[in-house]
Write a structure and sequence with these properties.
Elements lengths: L9 E5 L2 E6 L19 E6 L1 H12 L3 E8 L2 H13 L8 E3 L6 E5 L7 E5 L13 H6 L2 E5 L5 H20 L3 E5 L14 H8 L5 E2 L3 H8 L1 H11 L10 H14 L3 E5 L5 E5 L3 H5 L17 E4 L12 H14 L4 H15 L12 H9 L45
Parallel strand pairs: 1-4, 1-8, 2-6, 4-5, 8-9, 9-10, 10-11
Antiparallel strand pairs: 2-3, 6-7, 11-12, 12-13
Length: 413
């Protein structure tokens, strides 16, 4: 049984939008001025960290409040309607701003061509610390904030508003968690000194969970640009060495984060934790407290589980939801990583962002039944890896205890 139940609600704040995805079938597709192009019906879905991570937590069985910001317009009504279809309560904490436009994206995804996005940031740009009430933070066990690089007020003035928000949550006693998004190099967000911004914010962030490409851009911009030019792609994980993971995570821990997790796309997750026991113990209402010993000074890498991939929309956000779920239930870092990559694997079995996410017990049962993992990335072979990630052979760790009576008696790890 988990050491503690997730009895406190989680607040997920940050970026939310409406994705409008026209169906484009057939042969060559080219947008020509003055030409009418026949396309199919459009799918509507929510996007952004609030929807993806928040709804995934809900489906895993974690109590959650969603606090994204929308306008009182048609797109805002559509976003709230989609949330209510999952559960009526999920729209109750949403912030509706009179006179502001809701954020939306038009996703142009023709066959055999890279996707294109037309995006309006809308009300996300005016999100501020005061939008999250003191009362809500006093009641929350964990506050997770996602995608500040896509929210103007969060990154302008070197992130002063983001620092104010995370400090407010921390001082209210909540465990704090933050995810990122890669800034647009051609926009104002791309010109921000992100290293300086993170140094101001991370003392108030317990769990920091960016992707490796995002953090490489923010902390090593010249290295990022050189690698992109050398390899002709922004997908750089294939070319990242273990030493770089260690360097970047060490820098982020020195800035003040207690736990750093890098999303590695199809290669899984990398975790690094502080060596300062006092910092781990000071991880808020749903934090580690006296259980910090197992998390102290750890470096772990977990490859992904094998699945048939139908789509990768929201995969990183859902993986974060899995990590937060394990952490909230008091699991050790090995088990937490297993649950995270397992949740992410369930996500990519469906083309949309969250419909593939089952209950936490179902994720655990699938792992316990011997779910096969991909071999570890050879680039990380020299890291201080303490978790040999094959679900059928997990050396040196205690049995995984199931929370669902129906799966007890299955193969132990």
């Amino acid at each position: 049984m988990a050491k503690r139940a997730a009895s406190y609600p989680v607040i997920v704040g940050g970026h939310i939008c409406l994705d409008i995805i026209p169906s484009i079938q057939g042969g060559p597709f080219q947008m020509v001025p003055g030409k009418l192009l026949n396309i199919g019906e459009a799918a509507l879905s929510t996007g952004g960290a609030v929807a993806n991570t928040g709804l995934a937590l809900h489906r895993l069985g974690i109590p959650v409040q969603l606090m994204g910001k929308v306008g009182n317009d048609f797109f805002g009504e559509a976003i709230l309607s989609i949330l209510k279809k999952q559960h009526e309560s999920l729209a109750e904490g949403m912030i509706v701003a009179d006179g502001e436009p809701s954020s939306y994206s038009i996703v142009i995804n023709p066959p055999h061509v890279d996707r294109m996005f037309l995006h309006c940031t809308g009300a996300n740009d005016t999100f501020q610390a005061e939008d999250i009430t003191e009362e809500a933070l006093q009641e929350a066990g964990l506050f997770h904030f996602g995608y500040p690089p896509l929210m103007r007020r969060m990154y302008e003035h070197n992130g002063a508003e983001l620092s104010r928000l995370m400090q407010k949550a921390k001082e209210a006693g909540a465990t704090t968690s933050m995810d990122m998004a890669k800034p647009d190099p051609d926009a104002k967000a791309g010109q921000i000194d992100w290293q300086r911004l993170l140094a101001e914010v991370l003392p108030y962030v317990d769990l920091f969970l960016p992707s490796i490409e995002e953090i490489l851009y923010m902390l090593r911009r010249e290295t990022y640009e050189a690698m992109k030019e050398s390899h002709g792609s922004e997908q750089l994980i294939e070319h990242v060495e273990a030493s770089l993971l260690a360097e970047l995570s060490s820098e982020l821990l020195a800035m003040g984060a207690a736990i750093v997790v890098f999303k590695l796309g199809e290669h899984g997750l990398y975790l690094r934790t502080t060596s300062e026991a006092a910092r781990l113990e000071n991880t808020g209402r749903c934090g580690l407290g006296d259980d910090a010993a197992g998390w102290l000074n750890r470096e772990l890498y977990a490859p992904c589980f094998k699945v048939e991939v139908a789509g990768t929309t929201g995969a990183g956000d859902c993986t974060i939801a899995g990590f937060l779920s394990g952490f909230l239930q008091g699991l050790q870092p090995e088990e937490t990583l297993l649950g995270a990559v397992g949740t992410g694997a369930c996500n990519v079995e469906r083309p949309d962002a969250v419909s593939g996410i089952p209950s936490w017990a179902d994720v655990q049962a699938r792992i316990a039944a011997g779910w096969e993992a991909y071999p570890p990335n050879p680039s990380f072979a020299e890291a201080r890896i303490q978790l040999q990630m094959n679900a059928a052979v997990w050396q040196g760790t205690r049995d995984l205890e199931m929370t669902n009576e129906s799966v007890k008696g299955t193969k132990k790890l």
